Amino acid sequence: MTDLGTRVKSFRLQQKMSVRELAKRAGVSVSYVYAVESGHRGHNIVKLGKIAKALGVPVSALWEGSDEQ
Length: 69
Known about the structure:
By secondary structure, this protein is mainly α. It has a single domain, classed as 434 Repressor (Amino-terminal Domain) (Orthogonal Bundle). The protein is about 65% helix and about 0% strand. The protein contains five helices and no strands. It has helices at about 1-15, 20-25, 30-35, 45-55, 60-65. α2 packs across α4 (about 45-55).
């Protein structure tokens, strides 16, 4: 899950977006974003879809190269 979290954080930072802003745009909690980025959570595909949409990337972009597909 670390790869997933790394990708989420990378996309977020590329857009100069704070964790709080991403959470607000995605409609998820700030703690959820922190948990995903740190590798502690990430299997809720609905929430990941919201995060991907808020980042302007397809959900598949968050999983590319991951062994967890």
